[in-house]
Please model this.
Amino acid sequence: MLQIRAMAPADSVHDLTRLLHRAYARLGAMGLNYTAVDQAPEVTARRIEGGQCYIAEWSGALAGTIVVKPTYAVNECAYFTRPGVAAVHQFGVEPTLQGHGIGRALLAQSERWAQERSFRELAMDTAEQATHLIDLYGRLGYEHVDWVQWTGKVYRSVVLSKRLD
Model:
């Protein structure tokens, strides 16, 4: 029923963007201006560049996505530039399918990607007000390691990381 695969050239960036809008709507309703709340398809495509985008399908339909990227040379989040740290972004699951393990499977695939490339950690960030996400990531082994204030965001983000060794 659940399949995780690499994004293929035939996959629609427009469909992926619409999924992200739905997945981030709850966060947008909280007043949090995450990029994925209302980004254009061109932004979705740009945020995939230089990384690996995974697609989750549930019974053949688009159900979730995540992008995992290697260590950044330069980034507003200093933690993402630390040697051996890969990062995930643009992580969302169709709201009606949340709670079925889709997000966990996407994260596990990203962790495998990072381990196969000898990264020691996988990091991410989310708004400190998104306590439901921070709690979920904590249960999956991610620990609070830093803070970041992204340019243009009305919230401060918690940086979370999981050791992969």
Notes: The two ends are 30 Å apart (CA to CA). The helical segments are 13-29, 41-48, 102-116, 131-139. The CA atoms of residues 72 and 80 lie 6 Å apart. The chain has a mean pLDDT of 97.
